[in-house]
């Protein structure tokens, strides 16, 4: 191979190394240094928890009482029963008789148009009596009785958007391990950006914002034509450096179950493919270069070592990258209760960047047509 080509590969490898180190130090280190508030203070803010559910009988039966029995003085729970045919209506009626702060909004299938999650959430928001809204899904389990209290406390700072964290339960197996790692990596990215004053997304399983912000920015109108994005697109379009805060105390986590098969996991990811291309340009550039530079860093590492191009330099740069990532991620994974993933970091990180690029490419051509 020509010398100039080898030099070019080495140079580009160094560019990717510097880029990845920049993300680690400039972004992720902020999350590593962040300490959530330990002592819970009374918020005294009326809150409406909103859940959109379609055919979620089993999940509602298990999780809804845990949400309704939260240790918080003033809150209601609004469940939007979105065209369910699994007797969710009977369960919700039964729970309404027991819990007076449960409100149910029912949507029935219409032959002339199909409903979607954004439509269901909009109805739930309109039905909510309180200004401060807290969102989760029917298949999510609060980590503690203080979930509502922890998330709501952030509104006392004047924030209009609160970004929470929703990890997957640890069950073992390759799919579960990678799903948990991918979720942690995604959280590291969006939480770090929020701490830098440039929030670009949130997760609907654990998200809060004000009703005023929703209606003053016309809700989901700007992206109603895109089925997913009720969480990340809304945050991307409405978050500012002054109105967004994060909440990552373990008591504020919302846990959910990961898919157990590759096909189930793929279908889940398929629903969210392509949403990133609707982000603001600066966020698309930041995320695209992170994905590409991370992928090429590992590809060029292998190529350069095989071709024996400056092997000591190449190996040295990888070692610096590895040590920096271990030191920073050690703190983050401890905070996010995922310390067990640290041992798999070298391998999972490679697969993560392959996943980002492959699924990013697929997402360019995929159009999601249903949310359940």
From TrEMBL:
Family: Belongs to the glycosyltransferase 2 family.
Coiled coil: none
A GO term, aspect molecular function: glycosyltransferase activity
Entry annotated with the keyword Transcription: no
Domain Glycosyltransferase 2-like residues, every copy: 48-172
Transmembrane annotation, as ranges: 6-25, 287-306, 312-329, 341-366
Keywords: Glycosyltransferase, Membrane, Transferase, Transmembrane, Transmembrane helix
Entry-linked SUPFAM superfamilies: Nucleotide-diphospho-sugar transferases (SSF53448)
Enzyme kind, highest EC tier: transferase
Pfam families in the record: Glycos_transf_2
Gene3D superfamilies in the cross-refs: Spore Coat Polysaccharide Biosynthesis Protein SpsA, Chain A
Protein name: Glycosyltransferase
Keyword Ribosomal protein appears in the UniProt entry: no
EC number: 2.4.-.-
